[in-house]
Design goal:
Mean pLDDT: 97
Largest sheet: 9 strands, mixed
Helix content: 25-40%
Shape: globular
Radius of gyration: 18 Å
Structural class: alpha/beta
Strand content: 15-25%
Number of strands: 9
Oligomer: single chain
Number of helices: 12
Length: about 300
Amino acid sequence: MTRTASVDTPLLRVAYEESGPADGPPLMLLHGWPDHLRTWDRMLPTLHEAGFRTLAPNLRGFGGTAFRDPGTMRSGQLSALGQDVLDFADALGLDRFAVVGHDWGARAAYIASALAPQRVSHCIAMSVGWGTNSPDQELSLTQVQNYWYHWYMALDRGADLVRRDRRGFTRHIWRIWTPGWELSDAEFDETAAAFDNPDWAEVVLHSYRVRWGLAPRDPRYDALEQRLAANPEIDVPTLVLHGGSDPCNDPSTSAGKEKFFRGRYERDVLPGIGHFPQREAPNVVAEAILRFIRSEG
């Protein structure tokens, strides 16, 4: 049975769905951009059959998740997303949980794991490598090309597109990021409804601009930013799944990251899969998650 609910954190009223066995171990599912919590639907039956209780929130700026105070900065900082994960867990009374994240959700999952390794049992990250958040990171020319949308949103005309034609913009993103698979119009419409959140455009624009030093940070996260910069290593057992045909984050961007992980670390590249493995190959992804969590190696 699926339960739709909301819970208050210090900054947000988080809209989420809970499903699966009520007494099962908690598995938090964090969507990316431009997506929402429906992205996990094809995987849920397998995860529930395996006994997991799944908790899928909409991230800040998406769906029914709202800022509690109109005066709160609409920050899209990655540190903010990571803190949101821990705040959400606090609000639900979760002392320990596993987390699966895709895209923005993967970055949030890594950050939560780095900040609170005693609370995160396993981290499964899709389509994003750790150690790729710094504005001075090295980028191949291929990845510079892939990040065209970052650079475009840094322009006034890009910001206008995000605010004025979010559906046209994100539909184009979906078409080019899943070269061997197509999101149906019905599923896109259901997904894009989450972008009608009044904070979506500002959170998105801030997120992509602040990553490159093109927007001010929210001072409330300064201590977290400093902590992550000083010690980016992760103790939590981590699995990275990356589509071999990902046109957004080239698979090379998640390679060679072993140095950041002090615990068990695995990385699997999925041949022929684009940027949304959980949608494109849900059975493969679900089985990989279960194998990793169950493995003691």
